[in-house]
Amino acid sequence: MSDKKGTGLMMVWVDVPSEHEDEFNHWYNEEHLPELLSIP
């Protein structure tokens, strides 16, 4: 996902209704995390 190495760990727990799970996973993995990782 990133060539950057960190010294921490982030864990996230969420309750997503099963009918929205695919959409949520796509948003989280393809939009949300890359956006956060782009912040210097």
Q: What layout of secondary structure does this protein have?
A:
Layout: H1 21-37
In short:
The protein is an all-alpha fold.
Characterization of the model:
Helix content is about 40%, strand content about 0%. With about 40 residues, the protein is mainly alpha-helical. It is elongated and about 35 Å long. The model has no long low-confidence stretch (mean pLDDT about 90).
Report helical residue fraction: 40-55%
The oligomeric status of these chains comes to: single chain
Q: From N to C, what is the helix and strand string? A: H
Which term fits the overall shape? elongated
Give a quick set of tags describing it.
mainly alpha, 0% strand, 40 residues
